[in-house]
Amino acid sequence: MLAGLPASYFCIKAFSETDLTEDLGRFDVPTLILHGDDDQIVPIGASAMLSFKLIKGATLKVYKGAPHGMCTTLKDQVNAELLAFLK
User: Where are the strands (E) in 24-69, listed by range?
Assistant: First the structure.
């Protein structure tokens, strides 16, 4: 949760300029996609919804009102979802 300005900049630059579409189509393992519908940093339509369409057999869970940092703000709910998926 802590990063310097240059590291943050280079991370955002790399993620925004790297097209992972082809890689997502190769997934052949059970995949859980979690996303908040109020993420102001990563739009749900350009990430979770697209990934869900590209990964065969993926499970998509959308958290109503959840922000980008839902792994922190909703950690108990996210952990329960992960454990249920692994079982």
Answer: 32-36, 59-63
Q: Closest Cα partner for 60 from 43, 40, 44?
A: 44
Q: What is the mean pLDDT, run by run of 10 residues, along the chain of 87 residues?
A: 86 89 95 97 92 96 96 96 96
Buried b / exposed e across 47-73, counting CB within 10 Å, b at 16+? Answer: ebebbbebbeebebbebeebeeebeee
pLDDT at 1: 63
Domain ranges of the chain: 27-86
Q: How many CA atoms lie within 13 A of 38 on its CB side?
A: 8
Whether residue 33 contacts residue 52, with contact meaning beta carbons closer than 8 Å, is answered with yes
